[in-house]
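Reproducibility note. Readers wishing to regenerate the assembly model reported in the main text can use the exact inputs given here. Chain order matters: entities are listed in the order in which they were concatenated for prediction.
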Amino acid sequence: MKRRQFIRMAGLGAAGAATVASPAIAQSMPEIRWRLTSSFPKSLDTIYGATDLFAKAVAEATDNKFQIQVFAAGEIVPALQALDAASNGTVEMAQTAGYYYVGKDPTFAIGTSMPFGLNSRMQTAWLHSGGGAELFNDFLKNYNLIAFAAGNTGCQMGGWFRKEIKEVADLNGLKMRIGGIAGNVLAKIGVVPQQVGAGDIYASLEKGTVDAAEFVGPYDDEKLGFQKVAKYYYYPGFWDGGPTIHHMVNIAKWEQLPPAYKSLIKTASSMANEAMQARYDAFNPPAIKRLVAGGTQLRAFSPAILDASLKAANDLYAEIAAKNPNFKKLYDHMVAFRADQYAWWQVAEFSYDNYMIRSRPRG
Amino acid sequence: MKRRQFIRMAGLGAAGAATVASPAIAQSMPEIRWRLTSSFPKSLDTIYGATDLFAKAVAEATDNKFQIQVFAAGEIVPALQALDAASNGTVEMAQTAGYYYVGKDPTFAIGTSMPFGLNSRMQTAWLHSGGGAELFNDFLKNYNLIAFAAGNTGCQMGGWFRKEIKEVADLNGLKMRIGGIAGNVLAKIGVVPQQVGAGDIYASLEKGTVDAAEFVGPYDDEKLGFQKVAKYYYYPGFWDGGPTIHHMVNIAKWEQLPPAYKSLIKTASSMANEAMQARYDAFNPPAIKRLVAGGTQLRAFSPAILDASLKAANDLYAEIAAKNPNFKKLYDHMVAFRADQYAWWQVAEFSYDNYMIRSRPRG
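Running the prediction on these inputs yields the following structure tokens for the assembly.
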């Protein structure tokens, strides 16, 4: 072969290889930019931070070919319009909590958390391996959405109260910042639920516009300074036993993704689900120590208040289920799962925690 | 421009583009095949299955460019040589539990689980956001390894006993299949620990070669049929409050990976960490129902046995810490973390679970 001929054939070979390889690469790993709108502010480094980690992981694993830009609440749409923005395609996806949208349909809450629902590990197990995600996503098709669990706060606190609450009667007429189904449950036993944005809770408590307010737990609450304007910090937040934050993706946008990116969104959402819970679990203990050292009075809700709230919740669920087949379907499934969960939980987990709590002073 | 000249230049352009683009692609997303050896058999779909999901996720997100082939225990090396195989580069990585290697150094156990250590969420929080992973990985450098949490079983059961164990004295001379530090702890209060491979536990219990055996929990134990040869099923497995299974990667192989693949291994290990716990949480409840329906007798370890075991554990830890600075460093860190964890855990989480367990019969 002449040298000139060799060079031309080698060139052809290289060009041929490029022609075969390039389209495959272009199809499977295209350059894509998405926008994600969050229901949360950047200041919540636990919640917002988990989705930041998610977006970072997606970008890293694709050498920045798939970039998801995360916008805080209010940057594109307000906090409680995140789901709509993903649903109507304004953005490709949202980080939000289903239970913010019970005004559309109370079924949304079951994907997140229900008063007296599952704890954090159980909610994850139900969604992941208990059939919960399939049911929730069937429901979300009505809103052009597919959702992936992407964080959990763990059991929250019952909130900040300016006065002690001992009897159910003490709740009568009490103006409390609490929303969604939890507000509906407490309304049945006398509470007057108030809608107050996170940024306005402090001023409302200070002025006495509200008598009580629930937010999240020690780490987040301390940052907003509630300990300065309310003395009593009640537990547990029985309406938030283990709320799941979801990534909700517009289905049409989802279907346009190559399989590699779909897989990566699932995997990185799972990572966020772990990260958010781990951060809360690591950051809450020092925060509650600081709060108690600063004078915050911890109080448990009395058994009478818990019992009255449980009855109110069960009454409410029966009323909703009677007229909403979607709700009934998901609720019945979750309740059956919960019964088995707590039957098992009390054996190993609870008895272990119980012993560890009792023996703590002995080191 | 003449047609011939144009074609040549276009060809050059394409070749040029390929020349520029290909090396970049080759560097960032090269074709890589790794082998992962597991300490677990395929039959444990919970544990082994989580790493299967991990490998699948890595392959999917890279369009099969990065393939990690998972080998069950014994296929490349025996179960308890998985760490050595990753350490010496026989394989690139392993799925294993640090506490299998306490013969090398008891410090290994702190990355997994210690008797009276952290529960599942706490262990994840310690490793993820509490400084635990950094300490564990500092230690693992001595073995050419870097580790990523990749699964947790939750609190395990205390195992199967052929006779009831009521007093500490009942443990005297009891031959029990239990290993590692847990075996050392129980030996201090009379148990005679036995090394028995998972596949031989059933026969050993049946023949009476051992009087008791611990394995994992209802879902895994039921598959091995222990309920047919031992009547009493004790709880909690206080030596396995929340053991973390790790992916352990040979550091030299790790350093050769492009950043995208490093990031993906971390992200997909987190996914496995979530998946294993979710599967155990979903699958254990039906299993314990079946076991109890079939005649298995559930028994709680008595407070006296727990107290004697706690004292034995603390004595053992003091002995090890006195002569092993690595152990002391990680142990002291974990113990400080644990104290804050349980101080907080008893507030919201435990009181919520407590109410949910108490109110269960009322629906």
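We highlight two features of this model. DSSP finds 14 helices and eleven strands in chain A. The first strand of chain A starts at residue 32 and ends at 38.
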